[in-house]
Write the structure tokens for this entry.
Amino acid sequence: MVHIGNDWDEVLAGEFDKEYYLQLRQFLIREYRTQTVYPGMYDIFNALKYTAYQDVKVVILGQDPYHEPGQAHGLAFSVQPGVPQPPSLVNILKELQNDLGIAPPPYDNGCLIPWAKSGVLLLNTSLTVRAHQAGSHRGKGWEQLTDRIISVLNEREKPIVFILWGANAKSKEPLITNAADPDLAWAGLSAGRHLVITGPHPSPLSAHRGFFGGRYFSRANDFLTTHGLEPVDWDLSH
């Protein structure tokens, strides 16, 4: 029914046969037939397609896809090439420059596929949305699937950094039961194998409450290199 094309197919085997997903699928069939829905149906699972389970180094959680024309393509916070960067992404790239000195790409390039290919799972908690209606597909079953994705990542032995911005993303923190104590993780003294980094949402409505200065990108890479893993290449200019 759903074919990702990498190890996610095995990791999520059976998930797409469960009753909640079959009901979600029927809902989506009706929605795509009768409404304008983003992203396109062939882009829904792009986050998993671009970043295989064993390749995940960092998880960045979003809420639901962008709901204006031409923006969403299945990766949280990312827009299709040639589309102006939405305000939240502008703030993310501004923090990246402050943190690592990486200059933002041109304003009409907000495509984060290079991050996905470098090991960043850009996962929304709901994977579809009606045009112009933020949150319109919440509570339909997507959350059950994406909670499962977070849980199987939590079970993985190889360390992962989870970056949770805003209340919606932070509500998923209880699923990450194998998180290290951040004060001890750097020295390898914590039993947990993953790192959770939280902060306010990068939206202009909340970014001024402490999003800037969070150093999410350097902290993630420091944790990865401390555990003998290749850091993420956050530079979008390649």
